[in-house]
């Protein structure tokens, strides 16, 4: 993953953790108090501390990844309105070759739909519609593929927290056995702390990851549906129109470098 993605997540965590680090550890009366930061970030058990560290890294990654996905899949980057208006104007002015070249040179979702549809003009309007739908399915799957990382994180994080829970309880009960059933409270504290803190961080990581997964997925679904409507609107001039006798005119020829396609009914 790119370093900038990790930096975004680590900066977010640094912003949240700085006030916690500044909290005092005692009340000034000689009695030692555990700071909020130590309570939730520091575990005396080594394995438990490694689990918490791993969950913190997952949290930083998921936060940065959600931000990156929202930036990558903003409407202006997936369905640029300027491109739609430009291709629409070219089609209206019968500049079909220019419209196809413009769509072929653009890498946005809308451009790929238009390019796939117009390049099938020689096979008829129905072939153009099928091509647009096929390209839409392929591009939607491609955009949804990285979003699944959030789903994986949202399911793995609670399992990691559960692992820390089971490990911490094993440690606590082993202390109970070693002390012949009468351990000091502080002897049980490490295991119980590991069990609870790892569970806490597992839930903290999972909830925003799953929420981000749902939000980004819904955003992509909405954008791809709108893009399909826009692409069908751009290829609508190629639809064969009904003649006066009830028959239909043949579909326009395929756009080629030396032959300009012309929609029927003009």
Written description of the protein model:
The chain is an all-alpha fold. The chain has two domains: 114 residues; 74 residues, no CATH class. Helices cover 71% and strands 0% of the residues.
Features:
single chain; 266 residues; mainly alpha; 10 helices; 71% helix
Instruction: List the secondary-structure elements in sequence, H or E.
Output: HHHHHHHHHH
Judging from the principal axes of the Cα atoms, what is the shape? rod-shaped
Query: How many distinct domains?
Result: 2
Q: Give the amount of beta strand, in percent.
A: under 5%
Number of helical elements? 10
Structural topology:
Layout: H1 3-21, H2 36-41, H3 46-72, H4 75-78, H5 81-92, H6 96-105, H7 109-118, H8 125-144, H9 148-178, H10 185-235
Helix pairs in contact: 1-3, 3-9, 3-10, 5-6, 5-10, 6-7, 7-8, 7-10, 8-10, 9-10
Can you summarize this structure?
The chain is 71% helix and 0% strand. It has 266 residues and is mainly α. α5 runs parallel beside α10.
